[in-house]
Amino acid sequence: MTNHVDHSCSSQPETPPVLVAALYRFTPLADHPSLQQPLFDRMQRDAIFGTLLLAGEGINGTIAGEPTELRAFVDWLRNLEHDDHFPFAATDVKWSECAQIPFRRARVRLKKEIVTMGVDGIDPLESVGTYVDPEDWNSLVDDPSVIVIDTRNDYEVEIGTFAGAVNPNTDTFREFPRYVAENLDPEQHPKVAMFCTGGIRCEKSTAYLKECGFTEVYHLRGGILNYLERVSPEQSRWQGECFVFDSRVSVDHHLQAGEHSLCHGCGWPVTREMKADDRYEHGVACPRCAADITEEQRRRRRERQRQIDLQQSDRQPNSMLAPCSTPPSQTTR
Predict the structure, then answer these.
(1) What CA–CA distance (Å, rounded) separates 325 from 312?
(2) Where is the sequence biased in composition, kind Polar residues (predicted)?
(3) Residues 253-262: pLDDT tens digits?
C-alpha cells in the first residue's frame, strides 16, 4: 500500500509567472520514510505544489511555485543532510514556466520505486547507458546503424516524438521489459539509443539493456525537455509536442504550454481537431472513448465537471498561484 501525505494548499496572492521544476536523483536512502514529513512541511511553508516520490533508490517528482520560493526549495533540497551526507546534492532539475500552478495540492508519497519498471536488481548507479548531450543527439540518431527507441507510453508518443523513433506501444513502463524480450536482440541491434521526457526512465531502461547483454546503449541526457531547451527548432529532429505530467498536458519546442488538453474519460491527450468533433464533450469524453462509456458514466462525469467549473469560478481570476484543476496522472518522466 502506498503511504502519502496529501493536503490541499490554499490560493496565494498574485505573483510573477510560475516556475515548474521536474527533478529526480537516484541515490541510496536507508530511511526514506523519515524524509516524507520534512519535505512536505517545507512544501507547505513555501507554497510549493506538485508531487514528490520517495523510495529507497532516490527521489522523483514535478513541483511548481513562485520562482524565488521554488528555487529556494530546490537549493534547500540539495543541501538537505540525511544519513550523514547530502543525497540530493546532484539532483537533476529541468525548469519551465507556466501561467499558473499546474497542480492542485502538495504531496510527498512513499513508493517502492521512483519510476516503476517492476524488475528487481536494476540499479542505474551500478550500470547505465552512455549519456549523449542534446547537441550531439542529432548525429547519433542520424546513424543508420542505431535503433532509436522512445521509452515513453502510447499516450505520450501520440502527440510528439523524434523523427524515425520506434514506438514500443506500451501502456505503462512496466511493459518495457517485455518489449525488449520480444523485439530486441544484442546481435541484431548492436547500437541502441533511447530517450524519455526528463531522463529518469532511460536511467533504468539503459541499465536494464546492459543487464540483458547489450553493450552499446545510449540515452539522451536530460531527456526531451533538455533537448528542447538546448537545440533550436531549426536544427531539431523533434516532431510535435512533449507530454508533461501536469495540467499543461504538453509543452512546445519553446517549453511553453502546448495546445493539447487531457480527456477525463480515457486519459489520452486531445488535439484541437478532436475538440471540434461532435463526440467531444469537455470533462466527459473524446472521440477516442465516446462510444465506450455508459450513460451513467456520462452523467457522473458531467456532474464532476460541473463541480470543477464551480470551484474554478470561485478562485481569484488573476491569482497565478491558484492551482489549476489537474486530472489524475502518474509522476513519471
Answers:
(1) 8
(2) 308-319
(3) 999 989 998 8
Written as one string, the DSSP assignment of 212-275 is: TT--EEEEETTHHHHHHHHS-TTT--EEE-EE-SSTT-EE-TTSSB-S-EE-TTT--EE-HHHH
pLDDT at 12: 44
Residue 60 confidence class, pLDDT cut points 50, 70, 90: very high
Query: In sequence order, what E strands does 144-228 have?
Result: 146-150, 160-162, 191-195, 216-220
304-332 mean pLDDT: 60
CATH number for the segment(s) 130-235: 3.40.250.10
Which residues are within 8 A (CB) of 146 and not within 5 positions of it... i.e. 6 or more apart?
A: 140, 191, 192, 193, 218
Domain residue spans of the chain: 18-110, 130-235, 262-304
Q: What is the DSSP letter of 324?
A: P
Enter the pTM of the model.
Answer: 0.81
CATH numeric code, 18-110:
3.30.70.100
Least confident of 44-48, 171-175, 263-267, 280-284: 263-267
Rounded Cα gap, residues 61 and 40, in angstroms: 13
List active site positions.
196
Read off the amino acid at residue 62.
T
Q: How far apart are the first and last CA of the chain?
A: 22
Classify strands 160-162 and 58-65 as parallel, antiparallel or unpaired. unpaired
